[in-house]
Amino acid sequence: MAASPRPRPSLPSTPPPAENRCYTSAIFMADNGRSRTWLWVVIGGGAFFLFVLAVFTLVYLALRSGPQSSLTGFGEKIGVIDLQGVILDPSTTVQQLKKFGDDDSIKAIILHVNSPGGGVAASEEIYREVRRVRDQKKKRIVASIETVGASGAYYVSSATNKIYADNGSIVGSIGVIAQWVNYGDLLRWAKLKDITMKAGEFKDTGSPTREMTPAEQAYLQSLIDNMHGQFIQAVADGRKAKYEDIKGIANGKVWTGQQALEMKLIDQVGDFQTAVEDTAKAVGIKGEPTLVRPEKDRKTLADLLFGDLSEWLPTREKLLEQHTGFYFLWK
After folding, report:
1. pTM
2. Which of 115, 123, 144, 151 is flagged as catalytic?
């Protein structure tokens, strides 16, 4: 029997032309290159985002914590409290005074003043706390007036052991003011009517929708005169002066620091550094003292991202003229 023929091995298919192989390789390499580019873009973008997020987080935490100075241990320290702007809420300043007054490592306190004054009761509360630190805690406390230390701010300053001011500082304004806007004519022009129901003749005294009666004017003036007398007495007590001497200059005027020195409203012409150096010597601190300031106001994330928006937002200071009240305020 004849042997069956052995199967022939299949020959490999004809390879593609060289130009096709190059084209395929180019496509593969291009796709691979684009993939790698996008991969690096994603990685780089993610890393940059994490970096920015970390920076914002660190800055935000730093602002939240504030540049606090340690009050622990012992050291030659002087506490510095800034009394700035219109005085309406005394709580923060009073708390700072109590904290420094009760801390034995704080040898003295400097009130750094730059304020036109503010509310009658608010100024009085800070004044009383300054007196407590001075008289009960027996801790030296001085005032260093920068640009303005007038009305309620001078009221507070008068309770300290010593007052410093620059030659050109504005000092004084011992007086009381009550001021608001009467828009009764505007209501009548707009044909609007104010409706007020009250029990008590003087309950709506000072209403901005109508003129005051002579009796109401006399009533408010009596309150202002009484507060003025309180102001004069407080300055006299704080400065260890006679009531009549202070009353003679309590006409609401302000003076420069140079003039105030002649009138004995301040004790020395000098800047903040002078106040620091003199106070350090007065309490026996040798060398340069460590200045300790309270924790600053904490910023919000919105402030961090968009800046300080406070100038665009309504505040009690900005609405002061629309609020009926009594103020130790220089305007």
Report:
1. 0.71
2. 151
